[in-house]
């Protein structure tokens, strides 16, 4: 089995660098990343007890399947894991014994939800008047985390990073074991499409004092700073709070930064007429923003995966630690069995449903009681911080070309 997995990893490296379908460097890197994710998540879906034939089939599909088909399979594989995660969270936190179908039926028949702080849960009186919001157990985040580990085999911990640099600060560690292709962490926070960049705090120098921003290939930005380290309850969260996160930030504010602040300021989200979502803040995996970049001589062990969560999945929504600024996006979603994924076609089985654009970190090898390391892929067009050592300069150039 070890030899076969080594062959699998060699196939990942070979196929990921193949320029077969590339039209430009950025698209080439996008395809390479999708190909890796296809192989990793498909391997995870089959399981560690997969036969030699099954592994060979995955490798063969990775070399022949069109990019669109691989994207759909990645989305389905991630959806399968998220659904299992939400089921585990229900087992840990729900006080009722309703099935998923009963939960959906209750919410659909409950009529329009009331908005505002009256929806905040954790208090029995408010829960009783809001049938669409489940009642949960009064467990602390640390207790939820341990119970999740008991069910899944791993959870996440924050503690001083092992990166040998004074600015490493807090590090993200996996407590337990996870297979290759597993979702290790969610990237939580507030999402902004390109049309709403001006609402990002600190605009236009959005990254000057905020290291908790990440960008998807489609330009969607997620700001994890308001999420912080989560919370201790199921609550109405609008992303307005910005807790202090004890993590070193590269460099102090410069005179140039102060000038930018005077010349331009971000628009306030309240101008959009938006509202929060009832989210489970005791999410034991909502810590992707604490993953550090590997030091020289170290290898990343996770990679970023964009995932479009179908908002029609009402019973799972409270476990997705993101809210969107502005209007959400309708996408062509197709359902096969119990799985939803975005499709570029408008066939008879595809319908437009709103999606929430998110990011997760996927394990690129089996992990066991170690620090989670993510290749930041910082642009080489800007001055990089002293702690940054490129994992692959060619990938960095292609990603930001």
From TrEMBL:
Domain of life: Eukaryota
Sequence intervals crossing the membrane: none
Spans annotated as Disordered: 96-137
Stretches assigned to coiled coil: none
Biased composition (Polar residues): 100-109
Annotated PANTHER family: C5ORF35, SET DOMAIN-CONTAINING PROTEIN
Protein name in UniProt: Isoflavone 2'-hydroxylase
Organism: Heracleum sosnowskyi
Lineage: Eukaryota, Viridiplantae, Streptophyta, Embryophyta, Tracheophyta
